[in-house]
Structures are given as structure tokens and as C-alpha cells.
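Possible regression after last week's pipeline update?

I re-ran a chain I had predicted before the update to compare outputs. Posting the input and the new output here so someone can diff against the archived version. Not blocking, just want to make sure nothing changed silently.
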Amino acid sequence: MPTKHILVPVALALATTMHGAPALAAEAQIYQQPSPEVRAVLDAKGLPSHVLSPDQHTLGIVELRRYRQVAELARPILRLAGKRIDAAANGPQLTPVIESIRLRELTQIDAPMRNVPLPPGGSFYQMRWSPDSQHFLLNRRTPQATELWVGEAATGKIRQIEGVRLNTVLEDTVAWVGPDEIVALTVPDQRGAAPHFEAPFGPTIQESLGQDSPERTLQDLLKNSQDEAMFTHYATSSLRRIALRSGTSRQVGEPGLYAGLQVIGQQGLLLTERLLPPFSYQVTWDDFARQVEVRDGYGKLVRDLGTIKLKENVPVEGVITGPRNYWASPYPDASVYWVDALDGGDLRNKVPHRDRLMRLGPPYQGEGKEVHRTAGRMGSMSFVEGGNRAIVNDTDRDRLWLITDLLTLDSSAKPLRLQDRALRDRYKDAGQPLMRVLPNGRSVARSDGERLLLVGAGASADGGRPFLDSMRLADGMSTRLFQSTSTHYERPLAVLADNRVVTSRETFAEPPNLVLRSGPDL
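New output (post-update):
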């Protein structure tokens, strides 16, 4: 007898089921909390960072928030030219938030620490000392702006500089043009409302001209003219001269897309870099074309030094041709340095030298003078205390090799080779120079004219053994002043004026503690 199959319409069956069962109201969901034991671990304070005053008398102990709050991550952002911009605050989306600041006197060990009261209503970040160590600066982000606050080292009290809205979208550096005067990048006084678009003006067209061009995978690029207008609105800033003691300020110079700000020499000159349109849809903002200019401390143009090209259609790991990477001398000579490619910017070209370092001094006319050539691609330059030396690094991509040279900037002596090693050979890492802040706010490698102080991680087969070395400038020979032992992990933080050394010491069972060392054996 054949089997009978009874077909029940699915819709009817579902309707019957749904009709027979009462609907459950959706319950509001909230973030769940872990167990108390796990929460205690998560809520434990992180390790503090340390910010030493330029006179080496006061140590700022800064505790940062370990985890970001949901409200911070939920703030609306704009994704433009490779930046994620908090439009309301006119700054980057994320910043490290300071939970607390304490000031510790290093000249009086028994003196109590001073707590810096941080008022509610916003999140503070980026502590910076004044060159004379009498004040420190803080940024505070609120729902409406990024404010500038100044603190007194003697008391720890802080106050807001009224009427100043910082613009930190592209650059958050300040230039010290006096003991208590700065030039900062701020929101222009006359800036109107942000552009508003309801529909595109037209199609976005990009051309291919039949040339080989490497393309990179980059996030948050500009996509159309509307993005360009929004980026220009939020990235445009004005130079504002601010007197910290009185709290008065005024806008100087013309607004622009300032992406670089350095003090030149000791007469209050400024080296500025401004982004130039047309903007690219293929690279991020830091590869846009730039105008490089010398200005006085009130924003007035002194000399146009030329442009840095747009970094489009550049070979992989290549660089643009022409000037790039400008550095301003912090010394009275007030020279400006830049690096220039000798290989067409392409590492595939075989040449004896990849780059050359150029210099141009006041009145900044004519062609620059060549100072040094590097076999590899030049990366960084650090001025050395004293005014006539600098440390430069260059790398060889194919060999994965690093070379560090000590230059005499007037070419009166041959370069001294400080490092010549594989990039990954950390055992031979000679360390990095300790820095000192000059009265103009610029940092230079600390030197007494005869020696440099170097701090390194001390990588070895037994793990990291941080060290402090003294290196002779005459021949590059080093003497070890201090090295961590096998029983502790101890990092040198600073060398005080009286040759005492501040270190951070910890073990597997002990958290980091500050130690003040003195004597011949440290």
C-alpha cells in the first residue's frame, strides 16, 4: 500500500505557532561586568610614565588611563586623508588620557610629592615642560574644543588659557619664542561653520596615463571634492602667540594648513610647513605637497624656501626627488638643513650614495651647501649640544643595515662612525643619546663638548640589561657607567647635573620604583 505524504503549508504552520505563543518584549541590554576578581585585575593602575624638567630638578609622574571609555569611542569622527578626526575637539580621534600627575623634587629627596589637581569636565593629555622648568603645559579635550592649560611647577596648580582653542589635527607642537611665550596652532578666529553637502556636485574622475605606478592599500583617503573641503576646513589652523603668565594671546600671520612648526636658532624665527592643494586621493596627508617657509615670531614671512613634492607615483620604499625632511638648527647660526635624493628616489638604481644633506643659512638666499653624503637612505638627524655637530642615521634596505655617523657640520673634520651593524642585531646596539632641552625649547643630544651619554636596552642572550655609556667624541670609544644586573631590571631615566643617575628598577615580584644612584660605582 503506497505511503501517503501530508503537506502542511509552512506559512500556515508558522502563523499558528506564532499566534499561539505570546510575544516577548525586547529587554534593554547593557554591558556586562566580569567577576570581582577579574575586575580587580582590570582596574589595577598601569605603570606611570616620567617627564623630567629641563633643569633636572623636578620629575613629573604621569599615570595614564589604561582602557578607553565607551563614550570616547562613540564620539563622531571624520575619516579624511588618512586621519580620523574628532571634529568637535579639532584633533585626532584618540589621545592618551592622563588620570593623575604628581611632581617629585629630585634635589630634596625628603620633600613631599605635589599632586596636580585635574578638574573634571574633560580629559587631559600631553604634559610638556617649559624650557625654564617653571611651568608645564597640558591639553584638555572637552566635548566642544581642545583647551590649553598651564601649570606652575612650584605649586602644581593649573589654569586654563582662556580664549585659546588648539587645532591638533595635523600638528600638536608648540614653539617657544620666549621664557613664557609660545606660538601654537589654533582654530582660526574667523572660521565659519563646516561645509554641509546634501548631494555630490558631480562625478569623481581619476585618470590613468598609461604609466606603471605602484598603488598602496591605505585607509581613510580623500574620495571627492567634498572630502577635500571638509579636510581643508578642519585642518586649517592659525599661528597664535600666547603669553603664559598673563594669559593673553593674539593671532599672528595668515591661517593655513600648517603641518610643521620648529624654532630656528635663538632669535625667535620659525620654520613652518604648509600643505598645498591639489590633494591626492591615493596617499595620506603626510605625503601631500608642502610649502616650507621661514617666519618671524609674529608669523610674518621672512623667506620662502620652496616646496616638498607630492609623494605620488613613487617606487615602493622610494622617496621623492628634490628636498625633503627639513630640520632647523637650534643654535645661533640659524641654518636650515634638508635631505635630497641622489638616486632619483628609487632604490633599484645602483649608486655609491643615496642621499645628501644640504644646508642654507641666513639670509636664506641662493643654493644650499652640501654637508654630507650617505650610502643608504638617510632617516633622522639629531643636533648635538655645542652647536657644531649632529648625529645622522641611514639604512640600506637590501642589506637591512644601519649606519650612524657623528658629523661636524662645518666639515672641519671627517665623520665619526658610531654604529655599523645589521638592523636586527640588537646585541650591537650602541644606544640612543640622552637629550637636553635648550632655552628655546629645542632638544639636543646632551654633551659636555668631549663626551656623549648613551642609553641602550642592553639586549643579550640572558635578556635585556639596560645600560648607560659615556662615549668620547674624539674617537667613539665608550665607557660603561652603569648596567642593570641579573637580579633586577633597571633602566636609566636621567643623569642629573651633579652626575647622579635616576633609574627605574623592578623585578618579577616588585613593581617599578625610582632609584637615585650616585658615587663612582653607581
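Follow-up from reviewer: compared with the archived run. The chain has three domains: 44-193+218-304, 314-434, 448-522. Marking as no regression found.
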